[in-house]
Amino acid sequence: MLNQPWLKPVMECSLVSGALPWTFWILTIAGMIAVLAFLIRGGNRRQVIVTLIATVVSGGLGYLLTWLCSDVFVVFGVEMGAKVIRAVAIGFAALALLICGVVFLRKWKRVVASVAVVVALFATCIHVDAIYEEFPTVGSLFGYTGYSKLSASKLHKSTMSVKEWKKLAAEGKKPTTPKEGRIYNISIPATESGFKVRDAMVYLPPAALSANPPKLPVMELMAGQPGSPGRFFQASHIKSMLDEYASKHDGLAPIVISPDQNGSNSNNSLCADTSQGKAETYLTRDVVDWVKENLPVSNQRWTIGGFSQGGTCATQLGPRHPKQYSLIMAVGGELQPTSGSVEHMVSEYFNGNQSAYDSQIPANAIKEHAPSDQVMILGSGALDHQSLTNLETNAQAGIQAGMTVVKIKVPDTAHDWHAVQAVLKPTIDRFADMSGLGKMTKTFNEYESVEVLP
Length: 454
Hints:
With 454 residues, this protein is α/β, with parallel strands linked by helices. The chain is 47% helix and 12% strand. The protein has 15 helices and twelve strands. The chain has helices at 8-11, 19-42, 45-72, 82-104, 107-132, 162-170, 229-236, 238-247, 279-294, 309-320, 342-348, 354-358, 362-368, 385-400, 417-435, and strands at residues 148-149, 182-186, 200-204, 218-222, 255-258, 273-274, 277-278, 302-307, 325-331, 375-381, 404-410, 451-452. The strands form two sheets. A ten-stranded mixed β-sheet has the order 1-2-3-5-4-8-9-10-11-12, sandwiched between helices. Helix 2 crosses helix 4, helix 2 (19-42) packs antiparallel against helix 5 (107-132) and helix 4 runs antiparallel to helix 5 (107-132). The N and C termini lie far apart (51 Å).
């Protein structure tokens, strides 16, 4: 139903910028002004004073409650950041003013205030979403991606190396390619793992879409939990980054695969082989085997990366499979896979085997597989204090294991996709350099919105 052509403009309507969010905020402000005007013109000074006091008190209460949930009790497992706390406080204040209008006003004026309450609630939700950029479009709320299925006609085995492709490009003889890459929906069978998964997503750069593609490197990247493979591509804006890279490198860019590491929005597989399913085998064997069998890829080691729970997965699996992955990228990752208490996970996921769980903790995995020549890029929003602490712990483990570690703080962001977007840009360039696609021409510190930590 969601894939009907007539619904496409609605599904692709932005929730984080453009006309829709501005419309909600303009209507909310207009509603607040109207309610205040109605109350003032009504001549009841007491109602006006009560409304103003309720607005201020509710804003303060909203700030306090959100701060407690975020920074004190860490209810959601991560700090929400100052921007979100302020956004919720503003929403509380607006709702309080409008609710006073519903209580004090009569007839059609009450109807106006009631409608404004609903609009303000949506405006607040959209405001918070714009900060995280978790749901970038209307369709993303319903799992809509708009990506078509990868057909057999688009699958071409590689016929040359990247070096040979570059030589042909220099001579003006490279195969014809489209101007941009494409994202496709694919089904990767859980042949060895038996893990129940949703469809994966894959980005094929222009060179991979030619009739005679070169052997390209691969990035395996994962969204958080709750999340989905489509979420990664929609929220990270990685396609535009890769298309820009390809436009400057004769159509060359990494192939990016975003597999399903959890099976559903509500499930957390811990990215491990457990009694709940063999997620590790799926991600490191089934996905890898399918990509090598069906796409024009090189034999070079891959990048594995992700955001939040996906970042935790990357710092678990990357060190545990050093022959498969040369670069590990994690933004907002945790110190350990988490789904309830450690006691619960050991009991429910690992059948009481504490050591099996401990081996999945990133710092332990790094230590157990040292020494390592891998590159590890760890990122965090500057306002995501817990993730910054986690970053330092995992970075220290990586340094002790001999890894090349880059620590990135992204100013004015928290546990959100804006931090991911900033870290992805230099990561793509670094991996492309390592893979022979093109030289990385600037240092990490020279990238926009990036601060490299010592």
